[in-house]
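re: ur question from earlier - yeah i can do the single chain one, its not a big deal. heres the input i used so u can compare w yours
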Amino acid sequence: MASSLIFDLLSLNFIWLCQCAAWFCVLALIIQAYKLYLRRKELVAAFKDFPGPKTHWLYGNAHEFKADGKDLDLIYDYAGKYPYAFTLWLGSFFASLTVSHPDYAKQILSRTDPKDNFGYRFITPWIGKGLLVLSGPKWFQHRRLLTPGFHYDVLKPYVKLTSDCTKTMLAKWDRLLSDTNEVELFHHVSLMTLDTIMKCAFSYESNCQNDSENAYIKAVYEICYIVDFRFGCIPYQSDLIFHLSPHGFRFRRALKIAHRHTAKVIKERVESLKQDTELEKIKQKRHLDFLDILLCAKDENDQGLSDEDLQAEVDTFMFEGHDTTASGISWTLYCMAKYPEHQQKCREEIREVLGGRDTVEWDDLGKFPHLTMCIKESMRLYPPVPGVARELTTPITFCDGRTLQKGSHVLLSLYNINRCSSLWEEPEVFNPQRFSPENSSTRHSHAFLPFSAGARNCIGQNFAMNEMKAALALTLKRFELSPVPDKEPLKLPQLILRSLNGIHINLKKVEN
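and the output i got, formated as tokens:
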């Protein structure tokens, strides 16, 4: 009898606890729903001056983007309907202002707002808190310490190294011609630019073009693939879901390999610099590289970069220095294949400068005016970085009187700005003459932003342009390019501009 009573009391207590827990969960859900309601209301008020396309009650505009190669065309269509800027919703509780006009871009880029962490957080576990994602005084300190690494005296020896890496790629293409005339560009060019960055910036012989099974190379490719995949996978926007997923496990495993390799390169260089701590002494033995500058850099208080900061900047430069340049070179080669009259004009110019040489030298770089115009026109149509994000630290009132509040997220669509119909005549047409000296001098200062602008512009833009000129010159001197009719590339905007189905061209050896 007593035991039965005790059991009944325990049962009642258990039921009461379950009811309390249920009510607690309901209350928590109500509180969370109310917070989301307030968040939604706050966002609607913040973006009320900037209409955009019709939204779904749950998905916002996210369901309209299918990563099918047409997303940039959709964004471009919106720009035609909503001049200057429009609001896009990713779900019901995140909104961003997409800017499509140079006047707005000029105002935003003249400020020092930090990068929007929404997208960059996916790659931060790899590159750490380096120059790409830093803001405030620490960003300013790093920028000053890194700037000497891009002085023309440091960049000069890189041109020969770029030529050597390009010739390795072209030799591979020579061998491929015995089996097929068709090449998928991005894979080969990406390995070449990775080889280049490791030789130029870190004096490291990776042999990655001939040994793509190298553990570090595979890790870098794995990281880039998973970061890109995560962008298009809605469940993976959650850090917890991604961490518990198979992709999250692969990502962490690749990170360990990549970070271990970077740490090894830095450690070996630190050991070698113990004897020579002055840059002038190092220059007598070999060319200065980016890593030398990083290790020897000191601020006004005689403070250098911490070990953590050093690793972050090395990993940042490894990412920014190879993937973005690979995109620029690949899309320019595609344009050369598509527009043979400009390809031939570039080839004649290159032959006149190089003659019988198969290496580009520093003094050659300023002697390719038509090639340079073609590179810029290609980057206008196919910007390697299709968008730049900012989070406003203070309110902003734009030139047309509309205001955006502090904390708002802004995406500068470089793709749309580069095709702004009010500034570019026939914006869809490939016309390198847009970048002739006389046309460039009269253009809006922010109509063409391949390397962003303002204080946070790309610190490595001269390095990138030099690499593109050298690689393209040697490629066009050796091969004639033509498109593959049934394999038109489908634009895929991620951290960089890729192609959903690759960038395919046909090759034919040029007769000397």
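DSSP finds 20 helices and eleven strands in the chain. not sure if urs matches, ping me
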